[in-house]
Design a protein that fits this description.
With about 140 residues, the chain is mainly α. The chain contains four helices and no strands. The chain is extended and about 65 Å long.
């Protein structure tokens, strides 16, 4: 995450040096961002990135090989905006099974119950905190 933040900050630093006489359209801003991003990526020699990598109000933390739909944050941001007490959200997609053999079924069963218990415990803590603060 720190490496991604450094890349993002380098892109923003380059964007602040771009001349914008008489305003800038959204299309021009996107083109400048893409140009600055490609400069930063080529200067780093170890990174690859595409799209808008600027850090905003919400951060989506994913594995480097994860592909997400462009609208994946809509529900999460909506919930965060409506619930200012919420500081972090986690999606639970379950445990992936590949071969469905006896050993894997046992591991999946155990991991699933641990995930559910951790989520339930967090939710109970959340409700307890809301009760203590009179919400």
């Amino acid at each position: 995450m720190n490496y991604g933040l450094i890349l993002s900050n380098n892109v923003v630093s380059k964007l602040t040096k771009v001349e914008r006489s008489g305003g800038c359209t959204q299309t021009q801003e996107i083109a400048e961002h893409d140009r600055c991003l490609q400069e930063v990526v080529s200067e780093s020699k170890v990174a690859w990135a595409e799209g808008n990598i600027r850090v905003g109000d919400y951060i989506l933390i994913i594995d480097s090989d994860t592909r997400v739909p462009s609208d994946c944050l809509l529900d999460a941001v909506s919930e965060m905006e409506q619930s200012p007490d919420v500081g972090i959200m986690q999606s639970s997609s379950g445990v992936m099974q590949v071969v469905h053999d006896f050993f894997e079924n046992g591991i999946v069963s155990k991991l699933s119950s641990v995930t559910i218990l951790a989520m339930a415990d967090s939710f109970i803590d959340f409700l307890h905190q809301r009760h203590l603060h009179g919400h």
